[in-house]
Amino acid sequence: MSTTTIIVIVAIAVILIAIAFTSKHHKHRKVFHEDEIAAAIDKVFEQEGVNEMNRTDFLKKFQLKLNCSRKELMVLLGKARTAGLVKVDGEKVSKPV
Predict the structure, then answer these.
(1) Which residues share a beta bridge with 89?
(2) What is the C-alpha separation between 97 and 90, in angstroms, rounded?
(3) Among 54, 61, 80, 88, whose CB has the most other CB atoms within 10 angstroms?
C-alpha cells in the first residue's frame, strides 16, 4: 500500500468517527410543540391544585413532565412565556387568567 492510500483510509475513518460522535451526542434532543408544553403546564398546576407556584418547584415538576435537560427546560419556559401560557414574576410562576 502506498502512503497516499493509507492517508485516504485514515481520513475517511476520522470523518466517519466524527459523524458517529456528532449524531450520538445530539440524539437526546426532542422537539416540543406548543400543545405539549401547554398540556405539561396544565398538568403541573392541576396536580398542585393552585394557580401560582414557586419558580423552582414549578421548574422541577415541569422538567419531570417533559423529561428534558435543564437547558432545554429554560428554553421551553421562555417559549411558554412568549406564548402567554405562563406568567413569571420573579420567583413566582402563575397561569394567566
Answers:
(1) 92
(2) 18
(3) 80
| pTM of this prediction exceeds 0.85 | no
Q: At what angle do helices 34-48 and 70-83 cross, to 10 degrees?
A: 90
- The pLDDT tens digits for 46-82 are 999 999 999 999 999 999 999 888 988 999 999 999 9
Describe the strand order of the beta sheet including 52-54 as a list of residue ranges: 52-54, 92-94, 87-89
Cell of residue 77, nine digits: 419556559
Radius of gyration for the alpha carbons in the chain, expressed in angstroms and rounded: 22
- Inter-residue contact 86 to 51 (CB < 8 Å): no
Which positions ≥6 away from 72 have C-beta within 8 Å?
A: 29, 30, 32, 66
